[in-house]
């Protein structure tokens, strides 16, 4: 049995009480241990393999898939991420986006744009918009089609946050009048280089801006999970659940 993708003991101790009990209150046959199920889900996330290819030393793939979806529908993944991110360092926040190509198996779901799949230069794609803290740990993320502009959705994400006296780091794609006006209203400190077509380039702290690489590091970490480096899931909620799972492991690392 391989332990390459399994959650470590100290990591499991931090989150084990956040998952529902394996056995229902009314009784019934004992269910498979949550940790074993989580390890099976991690194997699928890291390998990028279909659920049906789950190795025999894990429980039946249908049982693992059912529990994964049950936790997703019950909001368990979001609650676990919220718990592990309580100690975030929000002296500064960084925002960016990355493109994920959609595999042919991930297309064709009903709902069109509701599934966060769009068409960009490289074909069908999904864009992950993320905000991380000063240490590069994820605070929130959203999915859109790949054609969505970074600044448009970034503005919506920033408006949902309290940014008073915080430094906001972003690349020049986020240099818009709307974002700068909002940050000024919030008394936040923009660390955003100006676009080349601005007549008067805005001033920003170049040394602090170098820390923006941490949001790129976050994308690099989650894309080590092959299920996120390429999108195989038709439903946006399933893809986001895998993204949340990977983000939890980033916090626990």
Short description:
The chain is an alpha/beta fold and 253 residues long. It has ten helices and seven strands. It has helices spanning 9-15, 34-47, 61-73, 76-84, 150-159, 177-185, 206-209, 213-222, 226-229, 236-252, and strands at 92-102, 118-120, 123-132, 138-145, 167-169, 189-191, 230-231.
Give a structural overview.
Strand 2 (118-120) and strand 3 form a beta hairpin. The two termini are 22 Å apart. Helix 2 (34-47) crosses helix 3 and helix 4 packs parallel to helix 10. Helices cover 38% and strands 16% of the residues. Strands 1, 2, 3, 4, 5, 6 and 7 form a seven-stranded mixed sheet that branches. The model has no long low-confidence stretch (mean pLDDT 93). The chain has helices at 9-15, 34-47, 61-73, 76-84, 150-159, 177-185, 206-209, 213-222, 226-229, 236-252, and strands at 92-102, 118-120, 123-132, 138-145, 167-169, 189-191, 230-231. It is globular and about 65 Å long. It has 253 residues and is an alpha/beta fold.
What Rg, in angstroms, do the CA atoms define? Answer: 20 Å
Percentage of β-strand residues: 15-25%
Q: Output the number of helix runs.
A: 10
What is the distance, rounded to the nearest whole angstrom, between the alpha carbons of the first and last residues?
22 Å
| Quaternary form | single chain
Mean pLDDT: 93
Overall geometric form: globular
Structural class: alpha/beta
Main pleated sheet: 7 strands, mixed
Number of strands: 7
Low-confidence stretches at least 5 residues in length (pLDDT < 50)? none
H and E string = HHHHEEEEHEHEHHHEH
The percentage helix is: 25-40%
């Amino acid at each position: 049995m391989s332990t390459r993708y399994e959650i470590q003991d100290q990591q499991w101790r931090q989150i084990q009480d956040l998952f529902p009990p394996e056995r229902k209150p009314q009784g019934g046959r004992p269910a498979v241990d949550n940790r074993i199920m989580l390890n099976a889900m991690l194997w699928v996330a890291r390998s990028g393999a279909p659920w049906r290819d789950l190795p025999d030393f894990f429980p039946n793939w249908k049982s693992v898939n059912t529990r994964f979806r049950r936790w997703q529908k019950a909001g368990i993944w979001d609650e676990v991420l919220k718990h592990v991110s309580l100690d975030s360092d929000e002296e500064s926040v960084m925002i960016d986006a990355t493109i994920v190509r959609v595999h042919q198996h991930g297309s064709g779901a009903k709902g069109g744009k509701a599934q966060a799949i769009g068409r960009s230069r490289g074909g069908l794609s999904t864009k992950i918009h993320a905000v991380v803290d000063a240490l590069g740990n994820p605070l929130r993320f959203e999915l859109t089609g790949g054609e969505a502009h970074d600044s448009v959705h970034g503005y919506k994400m920033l408006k949902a946050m309290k940014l008073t006296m915080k430094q906001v780091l972003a690349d020049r794609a986020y240099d818009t009048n709307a974002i700068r006006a909002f940050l000024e209203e919030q008394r936040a400190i923009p660390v955003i280089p100006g676009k080349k077509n601005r007549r008067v380039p805005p001033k920003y702290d170049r040394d602090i801006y170098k820390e923006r690489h941490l949001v790129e590091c976050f994308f690099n970490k989650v894309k080590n999970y092959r299920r996120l480096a390429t999108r195989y899931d038709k439903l946006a909620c399933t893809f986001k659940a895998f993204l949340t799972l990977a983000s939890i492991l980033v916090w626990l690392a």
